[in-house]
From TrEMBL:
<dbReference type="GO" id="GO:0009234">
    <property type="term" value="P:menaquinone biosynthetic process"/>
</dbReference>
<dbReference type="GO" id="GO:0008935">
    <property type="term" value="F:1,4-dihydroxy-2-naphthoyl-CoA synthase activity"/>
</dbReference>
<keyword id="KW-0474">Menaquinone biosynthesis</keyword>
<keyword id="KW-0378">Hydrolase</keyword>
<keyword id="KW-0456">Lyase</keyword>
<dbReference type="InterPro" id="IPR018376">
    <property type="entry name" value="Enoyl-CoA_hyd/isom_CS"/>
</dbReference>
<dbReference type="Pfam" id="PF00378">
    <property type="entry name" value="ECH_1"/>
</dbReference>
<comment type="pathway">
    <text>Quinol/quinone metabolism; menaquinone biosynthesis.</text>
</comment>
<dbReference type="InterPro" id="IPR001753">
    <property type="entry name" value="Enoyl-CoA_hydra/iso"/>
</dbReference>
<dbReference type="InterPro" id="IPR010198">
    <property type="entry name" value="DHNA-CoA_synthase_MenB"/>
</dbReference>
<feature type="binding site">
    <location>
        <position position="247"/>
    </location>
    <ligand>
        <name>substrate</name>
    </ligand>
</feature>
<feature type="binding site" description="in other chain">
    <location>
        <begin position="118"/>
        <end position="122"/>
    </location>
    <ligand>
        <name>substrate</name>
    </ligand>
</feature>
<feature type="binding site">
    <location>
        <position position="262"/>
    </location>
    <ligand>
        <name>substrate</name>
    </ligand>
</feature>
<feature type="binding site" description="in other chain">
    <location>
        <position position="144"/>
    </location>
    <ligand>
        <name>substrate</name>
    </ligand>
</feature>
<dbReference type="InterPro" id="IPR029045">
    <property type="entry name" value="ClpP/crotonase-like_dom_sf"/>
</dbReference>
<dbReference type="GO" id="GO:0016787">
    <property type="term" value="F:hydrolase activity"/>
</dbReference>
<comment type="pathway">
    <text>Quinol/quinone metabolism; 1,4-dihydroxy-2-naphthoate biosynthesis; 1,4-dihydroxy-2-naphthoate from chorismate: step 6/7.</text>
</comment>
């Protein structure tokens, strides 16, 4: 597939674009003048869009990207960085991108980072926490924390190290170098590199492949991959999915029906699997 598709807007926001196409939602940071650096509002809007994606049953896969072809995201907008976080219109400093990171990991649908241009600082961490990353040939990756007076010791350090290994992750953070798309591919930081003009078509191809698959199997897999790394929160996600599956069974329904019918439940006919 190489033709342009027509995305339908889902909801209007100030700093992101949010649209839909055949089972796929696209959340795109729309601040190309600052290489898609995020403010508290950008993040708040992405959180709301993610929440809509979670709740809409016609959405199976989410693409996270940035407008303009020159940047995925350049991290927190340094012009609004204040004392203790990034400052929005309410004058309160916050680091709400950490909530977004957790949301991307826990939303029970695959999230694909579609990376053109810069994925830097907190923007780099955003692609790191996505399930898959597809990069254009012009993509550039890196952390800047120790250079600009910040660091992300959460997923930005530990999950990055799980992906590229401890030595490489430390190099990325300590040196603040930038890596091209091929280098990112070589270190397992992205799944595929394509020419910029094929970026969206390839990303859609991958999304459609996933949409053909069992949504429950993908959901279980995502929480299984997370479980080992995310401690109790990861186990809670996996266990929540087990409960979802149990709710679908006749055995579980017998418990609920018996309660509603004010009778003793009869679980005798349900098998005790080996
Ligand atoms: C991306 C870079 C390398 C691109 O360089 P290039 O191509 O030379 O372009 P520039 O001329 O530099 O940029 C074009 C215009 O865009 C503005 N701009 C770019 N990035 C930002 C930004 N992050 N904030 C504000 N403005 C930005 C430029 O200023 C320029 O504007 P004009 O034309 O008006 O001059 C290069 O731009 C670069 O290095 N950018 C900065 C990258 C960076 O350091 N990002 C912040 C890193 N930190 C975080 O993201 C923190 C994340 C976070 O929230 C967090 C999470 C967990 C724990 C802690 C934190 C925390 O904040 O501490």
């Amino acid at each position: 597939m190489s033709q342009q598709v027509t995305w339908t807007p889902i909801k209007e926001f100030k700093e992101i674009l949010f649209s839909y196409y055949q089972g796929i939602a696209k959340i795109s940071i729309n601040r190309p003048q600052v290489h898609n650096a995020f403010t508290p509002l950008t993040v708040q809007e992405m959180i709301e869009a993610m929440d809509i994606c979670r709740n809409r049953t016609d959405i199976g896969v989410i693409i996270l990207t940035g407008e303009g072809g020159q940047a995925f995201c350049s991290g927190g907008d340094q012009s609004v960085r204040g004392h203790g976080g990034y400052v929005g219109e309410d004058t309160v400093p916050r680091l709400n991108v950490l909530d977004l990171q957790k949301q991307i990991r826990s939303i029970p649908k695959p999230v694909v980072a579609m990376v053109a241009g810069w994925a830097i600082g907190g923007g780099h961490v955003l692609h790191v926490v996505c399930d898959l990353s597809i990069a254009a040939e012009n993509a550039r990756f890196g952390q800047t924390g120790p250079k600009v007076g910040s660091f992300d010791g959460g997923f930005g350090a530990s999950y990055l190290a799980r992906i590229v290994g401890q030595k490489k992750a430390r190099e990325i953070w300590y040196l603040c170098d930038q890596y091209n798309a091929q280098e990112a591919l070589d270190m397992g930081l992205v799944n595929k590199v394509v020419p910029l003009e094929q970026l969206e078509a390839t990303t859609l191809e991958w999304c459609f492949k996933m949409l053909e698959k069992s949504p429950l199997a993908l959901r279980m897999l995502k929480s299984s991959f997370n479980a080992e790394l995310d401690g109790q929160a990861g186990i809670q996600e996996l266990a929540g999915n087990a409960t979802l599956l149990y709710y679908l069974s006749e055995e579980a329904k017998e418990g609920k029906n018996a309660f509603m019918e004010k009778r003793k439940p009869d679980f005798s006919k349900y098998p005790k699997f080996p």
